[in-house]
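Hi, here's the filled form for the chain we discussed.

Project: internal
Contact: R.S.
Residues: 408
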Amino acid sequence: MKRYWILALLIPFTALSISMYYVTAAEDVKPDYYLKTLGGEEKEALPMTVQARYENERVDIQTNGSSYPSEQQSYMKRLDSSFYYLEELGGLLEEHRSFLRGKRNVNAFFEDEKGIAYVGFETEFDLDKIQSDLLDISFYQKGTKKSESFQVKVQKNKDEYVSILDVQVKERTMKLMISQYQQSGKYSTPNNSEYYMYTLDLDKKSIVEKKLVAAVTTQDKSIRTIITNIWSSGLIKPSNYAIFDRTSYQLNGTKEDTAEAKNQVIVNRDILVYDIWNGQMTTIQSDPVHDMLMKGNPENLSIRYIGDDLFLTLLSEFSESRVLQYQLVENKLKHDVKLTLQDWQTEWGRAHNTQIANNRLYMLALGRKDPGVVIADLDTGKIVYQGVIERKDELGSNRLSFENISVR
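And the returned structure, exactly as it came back:
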């Protein structure tokens, strides 16, 4: 019996720990925050949730108050590693827990009405180790409730590293976009990645084609070119395009991580659109788009890929702000909207978080005192809502740190 003494002690200790957790949780009354309307109609802000942290605990803030997601989780569920899944996975975890077990890279997921796909590396890796060249391909068919899996080998050298950027499936064909770079050499950082599109036949369980999609090709040593992938807002949903931001700037002899390097002059910037299913690459030809890319301060300019549209948002504290909406399918500019936000930003500070949905631009500024929210109509450019985040007990929101805006 002596060999079981540790277990005998562990059982009451575990029970005591769980009891203490529930007692502590019951006694710990957290502050209630809410989004207070200052102007416009409150209904405009109803779809919006401001995600923040209070003492390192997640808090979601809406017009009617705040909620702490951890309070909806049991103690045992909080210990479950699935608690840390990203929100983009939605209800997949609850519905398909067995298939999702061990799958965590949101960029490697795909879901439609027919099934769920996931692509992962055989083993975890870091930059100090050699990455495996084997990919684990998994596909779950919702109709039959059956899953299949197999491995394929990617073409890479031992000093090369591969990141999965996007997975798309149509019928029994999978498209897999990856970035590939070396630990040393001509493309030695993620900013110098080469982008490849792999085509896989799910029936034959094999790679059909590997195609170089985008890479830096300039030979001018005085010019530095960076190509970056622009993420789709629907990370795990069907998408027809891969979008790239290609920026070239004049080198001035400074190190790339210095302030001087960040102020180098951009000599050209454009957006590349790759059609995933027909394999064609095009460059957006639009004077307003190119003008914004060239003249806008990169720190104030955001590019979003939402549905089949691109949104370029340039926010300025000292002049008009601007939003361009470019339709990828029709290959044309749909909206060029100017926003007058100078007065609002003078009072509340620069907008640090933005989101586009429902033909609205949602903005959060950290404020001179409390964080402020403004919503603008993207058809008219008019502000349709203004609000401020406050505590219901009026003690201030200085203990909050803000992370994101979500809009349903």
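Let me know if anything looks off before we file it.
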